[in-house]
């Protein structure tokens, strides 16, 4: 087992797939190097910006043609992963493909077809650990995505490892997590003790394990609001405008800059187009941001019946949030909308509602022509183009409504939290000393590391590999329903099983020969066939006839796939035969036709050696099997080895070769001339033409070391 452990996660979103590579010290090495404080911390995960790669479009676009997802999509991602994971560690490296919003809206049958193809392609072309497709390749719900994000945020901010330095009061030291994409929005936080007890059945039980093996348990509330992402909210907003003025051809839109004309799906109207000629309704920007705030408020749907009090948005239950101890960080759209245009990205600067709203009102009050000129001059930086500027006013209004009227985040700069404590002066000053102790702060990176839910998934996985101390009760790492009195609920999800290192023999020469490049296999076979043909041609005519005669006598002269026909041609001339038998072939159909660390790690001098693949040998992976945990079980046990060899289908079985006498001539042919009889014996055992071998697809164009 090497010094480093690696993990690969493919984040399959709606617009594209991004591969993330992480690594951490194996448990024995980490424990040997750890200080007393580090033994009480989670494993240190490392990554590098060069280890990520994103390609477009998303996997959901392959719903109608799942067989294309391998060569057209996964090929590039897997090749990138194999470039950065040491060759000798590939069989020990788990791979996960977790799909989110885009795949959730795909019909179930198409979902299954795409996921199945992803798993089969990855197993066929790489040796990454992929023992359980249902666990390693899946569409995750929004709640799981939110939980992983909560883990990543608290891991980077230090909420897990240094609780004393992040004391928010009342024994609370973790941060809340907010995420917003195009289609949905998520919230995850640990309620205060009173709310946690009151709403215990609504919480998720999360269990981690420190480097020293100590269990770490948290109870988190997670929910997702479908249709509350910025793009879906915009669609609902435009539909509300159309419903309010069904016969109007020009509809005023206060959420667009003054003078901007767009179609109902947000495309700018060009002069001379059919839309310009009055053949369809259009939206005309008026740039009135206060009115925009007023019109987007109903989209929160706070008037829906709340069946389980309390509720925030859309009638969905959320325990009461104590903003005195629950401090939230927001990622994705929360960051982009507050920081891409307005420079508020100072690390010690909290989200200031008063300042932000003033800047948005000033921006949206400009005419569209003025905004266009300022965009061309890069007034707001290189990342702000016309599309970003066009969408900003709606997005800002939606974010402000969600945060303050929806979730209830105090308006920093205007509202007060307790008594006469002003959040602008007190909270921001605290944030400078301890960091992120304001009610809300938008973040993108913490210590140059992106806050990504994929990091949370890998933290959970690395934690699950740490063996518990022998003298302690074994509590499985993972998450599931919070059922009072139940140690491991029935729906408890393991992050991937226990680590079983690869221990293949050095005598597995065939694994070294083809390594991680299956395209070498057909090339090798063709090379052998060429050598055989050359040798056959050079052995002389008489010897060829002798060898051919023996082969035909061995296998028979007929074929059950068609009727024997006689014809002369190139094969006859090539082998010196007067006539060559030809067979009609019947093919069977089938489906098969700047490196940085996230925390302290003593890399040591052998770090480079661990990354080197020189002299490494690859054999069969042991793989992992996912333990099945049932209610009441404490020790999940040791999972059995995963043996890829059991999945190998024997090639070439059932080719229809009959016994040697299957085609013997049943008629006595006595009385013929000896010359004729000799010729019959020569030709009676002609070998049938083999059908053309199926083309071996190798989706990975090339593997780079």
Automatic annotation (TrEMBL):
InterPro entries: GDA1_CD39_NTPase. The keyword Transmembrane applies. ATP binds at residues 182-186. The chain crosses the membrane at residues 521-540. One of its GO terms (biological process) is CTP metabolic process. Residues 604-631, 666-705 are annotated as: Disordered. The active site is at residue 145. GO terms for cellular component: Golgi apparatus; membrane. Signal peptide: none annotated. Keywords: ATP-binding, Hydrolase, Membrane, Nucleotide-binding, Transmembrane, Transmembrane helix. The keyword Protein transport does not apply. Belongs to the GDA1/CD39 NTPase family. This is Nucleoside diphosphatase. It comes from Lojkania enalia.
């Amino acid at each position: 087992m090497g010094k480093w452990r690696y993990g690969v996660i493919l984040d399959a979103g709606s617009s594209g797939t991004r591969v993330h590579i992480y690594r951490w010290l194996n448990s024995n090495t980490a424990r040997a190097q750890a200080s007393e404080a580090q033994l009480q911390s989670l494993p240190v995960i490392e990554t590098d910006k060069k280890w990520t790669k994103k390609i477009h479009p998303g996997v959901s676009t392959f719903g109608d043609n799942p067989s294309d997802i391998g060569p057209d999509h996964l090929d590039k991602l897997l090749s990138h992963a194999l470039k950065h994971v040491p060759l000798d560690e590939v069989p020990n490296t788990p791979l996960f493909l977790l799909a989110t919003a885009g795949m959730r809206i795909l019909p179930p049958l198409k979902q299954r077809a795409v996921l199945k193809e992803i798993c089969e392609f990855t197993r066929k072309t790489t040796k990454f650990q992929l023992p359980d497709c249902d666990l390693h390749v899946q569409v995750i719900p929004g709640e799981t995505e939110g939980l992983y994000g909560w883990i990543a945020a608290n891991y980077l901010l230090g909420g897990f490892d240094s609780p004393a330095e992040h004391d928010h009061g009342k024994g609370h030291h973790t941060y809340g997590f907010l995420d917003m994409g195009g289609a949905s929005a998520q919230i995850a936080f640990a309620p205060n003790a009173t709310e946690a007890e009151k709403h215990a059945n609504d919480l998720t039980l999360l269990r981690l394990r420190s480097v020293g093996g100590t269990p770490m348990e948290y109870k988190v509330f997670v929910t997702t609001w479908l249709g509350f992402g910025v793009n879906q909210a915009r669609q609902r907003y435009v539909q509300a405008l159309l419903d309010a003025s069904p016969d109007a051809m020009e509809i005023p839109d206060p959420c667009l800059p003054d003078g901007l004309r767009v179609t109902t799906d947000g495309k700018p109207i060009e002069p001379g187009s059919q839309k310009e000629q009055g053949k369809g309704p259009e939206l005309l920007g008026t740039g009135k941001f206060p009115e925009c705030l007023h019109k987007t408020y109903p989209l929160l749907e706070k008037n829906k019946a709340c069946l389980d009090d309390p509720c925030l948005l859309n009638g969905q239950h959320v325990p009461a949030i104590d903003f005195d101890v629950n401090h939230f960080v927001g990622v994705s759209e929360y960051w982009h909308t507050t920081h891409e245009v307005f420079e508020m990205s100072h690390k010690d600067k909290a989200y200031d509602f008063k300042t932000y709203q003033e800047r948005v009102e000033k921006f949206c009050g400009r005419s569209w022509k003025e905004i266009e000129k300022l965009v061309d001059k890069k007034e707001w930086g290189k990342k702000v183009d016309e599309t970003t500027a066009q969408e900003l006013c709606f997005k800002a209004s939606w974010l402000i409504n969600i945060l303050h009227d929806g979730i209830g985040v105090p308006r920093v700069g205007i509202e007060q939290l307790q008594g006469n404590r002003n959040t602008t002066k007190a909270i921001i000053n605290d944030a400078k000393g301890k960091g992120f102790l304001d009610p809300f702060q938008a973040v993108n990176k913490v210590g140059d590391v992106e806050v990504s839910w994929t990091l949370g998934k890998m933290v959970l996985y690395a934690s699950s590999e740490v063996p518990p101390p022998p003298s302690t009760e074994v509590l499985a790492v993972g998450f599931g329903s919070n059922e009072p009195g139940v140690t491991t609920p029935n729906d408890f999800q393991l992050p991937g099983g226990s680590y079983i290192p690869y221990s293949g023999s050095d005598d597995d020469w065939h694994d070294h020969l083809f390594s991680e490049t299956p395209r070498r296999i057909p090339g090798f076979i063709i090379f052998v066939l060429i050598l055989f043909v050359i040798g056959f041609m050079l052995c002389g005519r008489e010897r060829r006839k002798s060898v051919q005669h023996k082969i035909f006598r061995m296998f028979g002269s007929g074929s059950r796939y068609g009727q024997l026909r006689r014809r002369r041609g190139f094969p006859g001339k090539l082998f010196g035969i007067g006539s060559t038998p030809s067979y009609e072939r019947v093919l069977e159909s089938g489906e098969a036709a700047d490196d940085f660390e996230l925390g302290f790690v003593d890399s040591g001098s052998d770090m480079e050696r661990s990354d080197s693949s020189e002299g490494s040998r690859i054999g069969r992976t042991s793989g992992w099997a996912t333990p099945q945990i049932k209610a009441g079980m404490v020790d999940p046990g040791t999972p059995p080895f995963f043996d890829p060899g059991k999945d190998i289908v024997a090639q070439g079985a059932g080719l229809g070769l009959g016994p040697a006498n299957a085609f013997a001539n049943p008629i006595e042919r006595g009385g013929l001339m000896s010359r004729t009889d000799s010729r019959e014996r020569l030709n009676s055992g002609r070998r049938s033409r083999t059908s053309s071998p199926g083309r071996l697809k190798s989706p990975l164009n090339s593997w780079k070391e």
